[in-house]
Branched-chain-amino-acid aminotransferase
Amino acid sequence: MKRNDLLNFCSNQTILQGHNSYALSRYCKTYAENLKITKSTTPKPLKPNQELLFGDSFSDHMFEVDWDSVTGWSTPEIKPYQPLVMDPSSIVFHYAFSCFEGMKAYKGVNGDIRLFRPDLNMARLNRSAERIALPTFDGDQLTECIKKLVKIDERWIPNEKGYSLYIRPNLIGTQEYIGVAPSNKAKLFVILSPVGPYYKTGFKAVSLLATSSFIRAWPGGTGNTKIGGNYAPGIKPQIHANHKNCAQNLWLFGPEEYLTEVGTMNCFIYWKNEAGELELVTPPLDGTILPGVTRQSILELAKSWGEFKVSERLVTIHDIKRAIQEKRLLEMFGSGTACIVSPIKEIIYNDESLQIPLDPNDSESQAGPIATKFNNTILSIQYGEIPSEWSVVID
C-alpha cells in the first residue's frame, strides 16, 4: 500500500476514544478550588545556573491527583517532592500506559513569571491520554494548579535569559492488573526542573544522521502523541547517531525517504523552491508528526511576517540533496520546547556528508538568519520583551 493510500485509510477509520474520558468534565472543574497545599519544611539547595543540566535536578514540590473509574478525580494536592508509592503490578510498568508534556516557566524581564502557550500543551496531553484510553481532564483547571505549583517554587526559576523552569506533567495508568486492558485507575502528577540550554554547546548548529532502518512513527500509529512508549525505542538509534558524531537522528520514512522529525523535534527547511520562491517547509501533520507547540508558533510567526511562502508538505532526502546541488537550500533547523530552535549544519546520509548552509554573510556563524530570527523572537516573547497573548503571566 502506498503512503498516501495508507494515510487516507487511517484517517477514514473510526477513532476510539478513552473508555472513560467522556464523563470526566464534572470531576475536573474542582481542581483549583479544592487544591490541598502542603509545603516542604526542608528546602533543597539551588544549583548555580552554569551547573544546570537538562532534567537532572528537581524543585521542592510536586502536584499529584488520582483518578478511578468509580469515584473520578480525588482531591488534588501540591506536596513536598517525593517518590511515588505504587504496586509493582501497576499497569504502567507493564504496558507503558503513560503520556506526558513538556512546558516551561520563565522569569520575565520585569521579574514576573510567565508560561508559553500552556493551552496547547493541555490540549495535546488530553489527545495523548485519549489515544491510550486514559482519562481526560479540564486543561484550564490543571493550568491553574500548575501556576500555583510554579509560584510556590518560584525560587527555582533561573533569573537568566536562556534558562527556565521545565514543567513535566505526566499521566499514567495505575491499576494493579497485568492483563492487557484499559486502566481503571490513573495518576496525574507534575514535577519541575530548572534547566539551561538543551545542548551543552548552546545555540550552535548540529549534525544529523539520516536514519531509515529504524522507524520513529507510521500512519495509524502513535507518532502524533506524547506517549512514553514512543521514546525508549529512539534511544538505540540515537546512540548509533552519537557514534557517528551526530547529535540526533533525522528520521526518514518509506521507500521515498520522506523527512519526518529530527530526534524528538519537528523539522524545518528554508529554501528557494523549484518555482524560484523563498519557502519555509515542514512535514504535514499526517498522523506521523507530533504537533509541536514551537512548530505551530514558528508557522504562525512566519505567516504573520509575510516574507516568504509557508508550506506544510512532504519533502524527501533526495529533494534536499538536489536543492544542495542546485544551491537552493538556505537553512534547515529543528524545533521543540527544550531547545526552541536547533540549527542543522550537516546530514550524514549513506555515509555521504550533506553540508547544510548556515549564514552566507558570516562564515563563523553557527546559525542561519532565519533560524536565529525565529529563536530570538520566541525567546523575546517567552521572557516578556515582546508583548504577546502567547506569554501567560502567573499572578
Summary: The chain is about 25% helix and 30% strand. Confidence is low (pLDDT under 50) at residues 5-30. Residues 31-195 form a domain with the D-amino Acid Aminotransferase; Chain A, domain 1 fold (CATH 3.30.470.10).
